[in-house]
Amino acid sequence: MILEDVGKKLNQSQIQVFEAKNNVVFPEDYRRFLLNNNGGMPQELVQFTFQFRDKNGKQVLQGSDVHYFYDLNELEEVYENLTNEKLIYPIMIPIACDSFGNQILLLSETSELGKGVYFANHESLTTTEFPNWMVYKVSDSFSEFIDLLKPLL
Fold it and tell me: What's the pTM?
């Protein structure tokens, strides 16, 4: 995947500052992505699909796209906004958005919930107070998520 409009080149210490400030740890594959690209917009439209069970236990196939991967500065701003508004847990790191404003989240390595990439639908609220958005697991790792991305036909 070729990315356009990537952010300024990063070094390890810039990533470590973000991690320390927010008490998160990026998985190594995502850290490499930031060091190589620091966000950006896919040159070609890309999509992904995933399955989840709805509240009735029915298997549902969901799809979306990746409009833009956040650079570290944008990531910090979006992370702060989403956690302050209690829309996501602080162990969830927003790494990208789709064309509709939904968020693609990555679990911190410090998470006790496991690992992986999640999709947060901003139009779907939970019945509990926190977090406010419904989140659905897409993949077990950032690398697996990248492998799921296919050109939008």
Answer: 0.89
